[in-house]
Amino acid sequence: MTRLAIAINLHRCIGCQTCTFACKMQNNVPEGMLWNRVITEGCDLMDGAQGTYPNLSRTYLPIACQHCENPACLKVCPTGATYKDDLGRVEIDYENCIGCRMCMAACPYNARSFNWGDPVHDPAIKYGDAEVPVRVKGMVEKCTLCKERTDRGEEPQCVRCCPPEARTFGDLDDPDSEVSRLIREKNAYVLLEEKGTKPQVHYFD
Questions:
Q1: Statement: 4-204 belongs to CATH 3.40.50.2000
Q2: How high is the pLDDT of residue 44?
Q3: Is the peptide bond before 123 cis (omega within 30 degrees of 0)?
Q4: Taking a C-beta distance cutoff of 8 angstroms, is the pair 102, 77 a contact?
């Protein structure tokens, strides 16, 4: 068995948004849509701060599809478009997606986007990995754990491009992998554990 996963060191994350835009370029993500977001915790702004000057603090939370072991989105998909593959990734079969958005309603992480109109790109060309499928109007999309890259044995682009090396990628089912070691030794946690979705994205400080 294989369960591809990411462990994120929040102490290292500097909120630079490199992962956000590396993901956008790799996956030909349209204008006005992000698969990978970095939230400034407790703020409505991308780079806000908590507290009152001069006693301010700022912490970041990178968030995308959590590639859950028990995904809520999969359970509600009426066509089987959402599925979990043999590498543990939660994926979307775009040919079967009917745009009902049930998966979006079920996801507790707000990790999916919807093409309300024809996707717009700037520049108006298909950029990113040549193997990434084109998504159209009326279709849900989200982080695929860079399926095309990880199928080739490469790291997801967000991991490869992170300047402070806050992200570690690997196989949860391999106890000797670096991601398994970090999760074990750093007492890593998952988001919204009480939802029972068992995310494969872990966080630690």
A1: no
A2: 75
A3: yes
A4: yes
Beta bridge partners of 51: 56
Q: Are 203 and 189 in contact (CB under 8 A)?
A: yes
What is the pLDDT, as a whole number, of residue 123?
A: 82
Residues 66-85, mean pLDDT to the nearest whole number? 98
pTM over 0.90, yes/no? yes
**Is pLDDT at 80 greater than 90 in this prediction?**
yes
**If phi over 0 gives left and psi between -120 and 50 gives alpha, with beta otherwise, what is residue 196?**
left
- Checking DSSP bridges between strand 4-9 and strand 201-204, what pairing results, if any? parallel
All structural domains of the chain with their residue ranges: 4-204
Measured distance CA(3)–CA(22) in Å, rounded: 23
> Which tokens in the block code for residue 63?
């968030």
Handedness of CA 15, 18, 22, 28 (dihedral sign): positive
pLDDT in the model for residue 38 = 95
Residue with tokens 């998504």: 135
